[in-house]
Amino acid sequence: MTSTFGKGCHLHLIDGSAYIFRAYHALPPLTRKSDGLPVGAVAGFCNILWNELTKDKGSDAATHIAVVFDHSSKTFRNEIYPLYKAQRPEPPEDLRPQFPLTRTATKAFNIACLELENFEADDIIATLARQAREAGGRVTIISSDKDLMQLVGGGVEMLDPMKNRKIGPDEVFEKFGVGPDKVVDVQALSGDSVDNVPGAPGIGPKTAALLIQEFGDVETLLERAHEIPQQKRRESLIENAEQVRISKRLVQLDDQVALDFGLETLELQAPDATKLMDFLNEMEFRTLTRRVADKLGVAPPEAPALTETAEAAPETPVLPFDHTAYQAVRDMGALNQWIAEIYEAGYVAFDSETTSLNEMLAEIVGISLCVTPGKACYIPVGHKTGGDDLFGGSALAPDQLPLDQVLAALKPLLEDPSILKIGQNLKYDAKIFARQGVRIAPIDDTMLMSYAMHGGIHNHGMDELSDRYLNHQPIPIKTLIGSGKTQVTFDKVAIDEAVKYAAEDADVTLRLWQKFKPMLHRAKVTTVYETLERPLIPVLMDMEMAGIQVDRDTLSRMSNAFAQKMAGLEAEVQEVAGQPFNVGSPKQLGEILFDVLKVPGGEKGKTGAYGTGADILEDVTTLEDTHPQGAKLAALVLDWRQLAKLKSTYTDALQEHINRDTGRVHTSYSISGAVTGRLASTDPNLQNIPVRSEEGRRIREAFVAPKGRVLVSLDYSQIELRILAHIADIPALKQAFRDGHDIHAMTASEMFNVPLDQMTSDVRRQAKAINFGVIYGISGFGLARNLRIPRAEAQGFIDRYFERFPGIKDYMTATVKGAQERGYVETLFGRKIHTPDINAKGPGQGFAKRAAINAPIQGTAADVIRRAMVRMPGAIAGLDAKMLLQVHDELLFEVAEEDVEKLIPIAKEVMEGASDPAVKLSVKLEVEAGRGQTWAAAH
DNA sequence: GGAGTCACG
DNA sequence: GACGTACGTGACTCCG
Prior knowledge:
CATH architecture of the largest domain: 3-Layer(aba) Sandwich
Radius of gyration: 32 Å
Structural class: alpha/beta
CATH class of the largest domain: Alpha Beta
Largest sheet: 6 strands, mixed
């Protein structure tokens, strides 16, 4: 069978160990049903292998393939340097038993499974890649590990499996600033904290790349180190020369490993169907077993009879999706039969098709229902005939029940408290039905169930959930309505096509619900779902439908004023620049500023463009003395940009959002959009209306109350700092809040030993930045940049802060540790925020750590205001008042003048007591109130 | 469609 | 001792 490996052959090398960790962290925990053995990582690993074997890669298809593993943690590198990879955390408890299983899996797929004592997987990969290259073949290394990048070139390339992106010499250069042949030199200098490669202290990747570009390689550099002008670099290199040499030996892969097999033995072979099916079946991977069985054309083995334990999920029969089985309901007889079935079942999955994503404008085109997996119907009510006639095809297509008749028949059912309505993003459908006078209740929402269980792991759109949990890819909407300019509305879709698509959505939703229902309980997030997600739907519906009155004339006048000012500024900009260019183009601006005018300090980012953000331009404006032309230009552009932003995003775009019928602006809140539990506002975003700048704040004058009514704003004072004080248990902070002190001034006083009555605004400002920094997972670099002070000074501040408030440091350490062990962090109310990147290596881990520190604080604050919002309608029911907007720590109400005095204390009490009784906070929450005819005045 | 920029908490 | 850095969002404009 085997032939020699040579020209025309293509070897795929899979970095197996990396895959296991990725699969483990990327996927929700999964255990084998029969005995509870953790198998999540094995399942993910098998899926990856199967995809690798079956996906069509055209000319990149493998002829030879192998999976390479690390044998153990000790390798020859530990003899060179005992600390190498010494600080690797132990793998999690439930991952360890899965390591041997992945080997078994690889063999079951009939793929060569390689590992060698004393060597890392990377060395074996290096050796095989060299052999293949020398034999004239091609190699694809499936990994995104930067340690492998030194191998790229000469027929060897890498493939990042997550991004599906090829990594060739250009990408390596982009990453390291040098070609593949110099990667080890750069790594030797910069070191690697994750692997404990020491490198030269004080030299990071950027400096390392510069040095290697100049000197060629590590050895030359070390010999000529005395020529380096920068004192720090020079000294570090001279002092640490030996350490750098060791580092190079650590990062240099060994491509001469003695292997006792030839490349030809890695030839790609079809898996042995029986062996593979046996393994998958033993692992109890139902869906993958079925997929593999389909593909190999063998019968799936009978599922072993499972002993039903108390908490095991009721078996969901795996039933293929069949679009031809869906029914079009075109007469009342059929509809009534469906209604009877729904009453019989007690629940129904439900979805609507409409003409718009904007619920305030959308018209119902059809409704789909599903009670049993695989059996669903679609009721067309608003489909139009083809667009052939002169009037744009506006005639109704034949054989459709009239909308009002369908609504009349469904209304009792949709409002029946004994019938559960299940949807995916039900707020959308519920709003549309509410406009037709139907209040859908009670409800379950699969999107929110997923959010409660898996926030932070993946998004919660139906296509993604279906793919992940049902292994099924629903018909993409684009195949029906197209995209871009030629996109049509759903009413133009032929009914036959619509039935397949729409009924499938209800079918998918029902299956997801059946799957999620028991999962929710096992993930211990039922309370979160029941108290923080689901009850928010009707509350947000009412807020969104109420909308807020926005005065078009005010916006329009401001827009004109902005346009005039911008034109003036633009002319000035061109004059200072000495040539015309597009002020709105950062690329052109950067070139004018740093290339043409030669302003010093221009820095190009990864895309090769100069950065021209506000902070950079602000720095340029300080060059008044040395470069007046650049300073002037930067100042003008900053002004221009502020106006451009205000005009395009606010004064212009906001007018487009004023609803024709209501004369008001209706935002849409996304409940599951932000991982921390915050809401997100879209179309338009009313959570980022300007307030910080004088000029911008005037936009809020356009947000008004109608005659006889008032806008009332209530916002939590320092809620995140208060929550931090409670969670981290900081007595000094708590006391300050109890005493009603200015918290930033108090911090400053503690830190700098300045009495409160001698506090300067500048010292207070610095303390405030530190307080916020703590909430964000502070770092010396970040604080230094924010305050524009030297890094060492910033670090000094942080050290002193931790000294004064030791609990903060403990909180941060404990939170990160918890995230690393469990894969998630929690809010005080039990919301889980998953942190899949927390054990990643590289800079991603830094991000993940800071996010993990921030999430319980931001998330708890988000939970608090959610609780207040859920209780608010009941509390203010007797008043002529409506809750209109939420801006993270603020609620905005519209109230009849005569009820203002009643509303404020009631709403305040609800907000201040929102954590009770679930959580007893050791810090009081305080709410401040404002009122006025406009939002500007109320704030 | 991604990157850059900037508005908010 | 240092990786590269503030946390969380959405909308608009340019440009390939």
